[in-house]
Amino acid sequence: MDKLIMQGGQPLSGTIPISGAKNAALPLMTASLLTSEPLILRHVPHLADITTLAEVLGEHGAELSLHGHGEGGETGRVLSITTPRITNAVAPYELVRKMRASILVLGPLLARHGEAKVSLPGGCAIGTRPVDLHLKALEQLGATITLEGGYIHARADNGLRGAHIRFPAISVGATENLLMAASLAEGETILENAAREPEIADLAACLNAMGADIRGAGSETITVSGTTRLRGADHRVIPDRIETGTYALAAAATGGDVTLTGTRPELIDSLTELMQQAGVAVTVEKDSMRVCRDPDRPMEGVDMMTQPYPGFPTDLQAQFMACMATAQGAAMISETIFENRFMHVPELMRMGANINLHGGTALVRGVKQLTGAPVMATDLRASVSLVIAGLIAKGETEINRVYHLDRGYERIEDKLSACGASIRRERV
Ligand code: UD1
User: Residue 125: its pLDDT value, please?
Assistant: First the structure.
């Protein structure tokens, strides 16, 4: 298992190119199952989660080909996926357990093939994360769902039919699964209380290019007029707003000056506002942003609460906490999306942070300095918060179980080293 060795104390300075969004690319890849024609996705990040999902799609009969960087002036990779027919409707436990997002094959398989058997994802480090919202909504489209031997077995022998669905709670994945299923259902589907994340609008744009008729994606009510057949398309994945926010926070934490390029700053307005309140200078252009802080003026402690988009993303909570660990004053950080997303807290405390946890709220009292320590990565975003802590800590930090980081951050050590960080990977 690889580890990262870091020496803290260098302000980051330079330019970081932002990759395509993992959380947009994953549902887009599963949308390829809805058609027999090729779906070409551009600006796909090179990440372990993408490889895992490619394996899942391969199980169902998809043929995938990946082209390298820089083709046609593009950054990222170009992924072409063609599924002439669904050869097997089973998404096995060995693959689904590696990545929950595999549940996103359920809607497409059911809609095109009339049957899907997907392993229940099971518990995961950041909470129980059930899939009940996906299943109930698919039942409303006419699917029959049973749970057998740890698998979700969904059938729609006579096809899916449009319905008026009001989600009892907001779920990104359930909204995506339903968008894909409803695109091939008979008649109209209305989704109320839908998630508004930018990745949903990106998926809808791709589905529309494939011949679907989706209106209102990005708002809380989405209308889908079903069609009998979807075609191939050529789609560019949106930039990763979480990667953007992570490096913005890393720059702010170190008192650096970093420009993030190839991004869409308006997708993280909630973060920009908080950083400005904390005394960080943020300059926003159309497709880049510059984040800069005077190293002699620590960030101010500011309170934050995670919320569905356009609120502050839960996927940036851990990174924000790492910044607040050395802020001037205190910060109250409330997590409202996942019930157990504070695994980074004990690790940050081992590096000298002063944090008190009360249920879903963490009170962070800023300390003058963190100190390097050997720490353990537990999940994707928790791991990267330890990288931020390692950048500002005095001395050496060793981060173990780096495979969590490789699930979601493309070439993290290269991107940070290019801005002056002392960080290297040791292959164990
Ligand atoms: C997606 C993102 C993840 C992000 C999360 C919230 C992807 C691949 N992953 O995950 O990075 O942290 O959105 O922004 O895009 N829930 C239920 N029942 C369900 C589904 C969800 O109770 O059937 C709960 C979850 O446990 C959680 C909340 O709803 O508490 C939000 O989860 P959801 O929006 O579904 O997250 P994901 O789509 O899994």
Answer: 57
Q: How far is the CA of 206 from the centre of ligand 1 (A)?
A: 21
Whether 186 contacts 160, CB under 8 Å: yes
Q: How far apart are CA 101 and CA 89, in angstroms?
A: 16
Residue type present at position 380: L
Q: What is the pLDDT of residues 143-158, one digit of tens each?
A: 999 998 889 999 999 9
Please give the structure tokens belonging to residue 206. Answer: 């791709």
The residues lining ligand 1, judged by C-beta closer than 6 Å to any ligand atom, are 23, 26, 100-101, 127, 129-134, 169, 171-174, 195, 199, 314-315, 337-338
User: How many A from CA of 314 to the centre of ligand 1?
Assistant: 10
**Cα 175 to Cα 168: distance, rounded to the nearest angstrom:** 12
Confidence band (pLDDT; 50, 70, 90) for 404?
A: confident
Phi, psi angle pair for 191, to nearest 5°: -105, 120
What confidence tens digit (pLDDT) does each residue in 30-50 have?
A: 999 999 999 999 999 999 999
